[in-house]
Amino acid sequence: MREIIGAVDETLFERMMLVLQDLSTGYLLREEVADERTFSTWKALVDERLEALGTGVLYLVSDRAKPLMQLAERGLACLSMPDFFHFVHDIVKSYALTTGRRLGQAQKDLKQVEAMRGSHRGRGHVDGAGPEAKAQVEAKQAEVRRWEAAQCTYRHQLETLSLTLHQFGIADSAPQTSAQVASHLQAVAEAIVAFAQRHQLPTRPGSMTKVRKQVPALAALVDFWWPSVYQDLAPCILSPRWRQ
Q: Model confidence over 97-110: pLDDT tens digits?
């Protein structure tokens, strides 16, 4: 029996589709039209397919819909892991669009001030080249730079999130535990909240609470991964140094 790493999600087109996919290969194990997405519906379809393949599930990735969490914990007795895409998407919905709009507005304001100054110069107005007009342009340029820097900082924080969820630290290649990963993820989440407050972005307490709740389940994958490594290495003849 070969255990698979499974991912379950539901996709809505013209009809509702229940989808079971093997993440390691991208193979669709089941794709079924359904009228409902309850636990019992999922359980019946998944059990039938797994029995036909003679395989099982190591862990289940989902968007945290309750029937899918129940399917993992009750139906398959395996680790239920949040979908990292949905995890990050909740943060992006909270702050990315607002940051982009602020930058866009600052760029628009700068163009308007520059156009007005150029127009005054073209008509021979002294005010168009005076210190007041110059100060207005410089102020708008500073505002554009501010929001460009803010957007860069925000994107770096999102990148840090994606690089943190790994069995080895990206910076030093040292093995990580789930506790370490959870701590790093929480720190980045708090840094994003501080970023939003610093730039006076709209607060999104509901989204960030949801993000914080998912951190332990995300980080659990790291500890879960190590036993599978030792299991794979068990038949191999390795020196003590390599095993370490």
A: 899 999 999 999 99
Structure tokens at 231: 């299991």
What amino acid is encoded at 6 in this protein? G
The CA distance from 199 to 194, in Å, is: 9
Q: Which pLDDT tens digit goes with each residue over 22-80?
A: 887 888 888 888 888 899 999 999 999 999 988 888 889 888 889 999 999 999 998 88
- CATH H-level superfamily of 3-82: Ribonuclease H-like superfamily/Ribonuclease H (3.30.420.10)
Q: Where are the domains of the chain?
A: 3-82, 85-107+140-223
β-bridge partners, 57:
4
Contact 185, 215 (CB under 8 A): yes
Strand partners, 20: 8, 30
What the block records as the tokens of 155 is: 């994107």
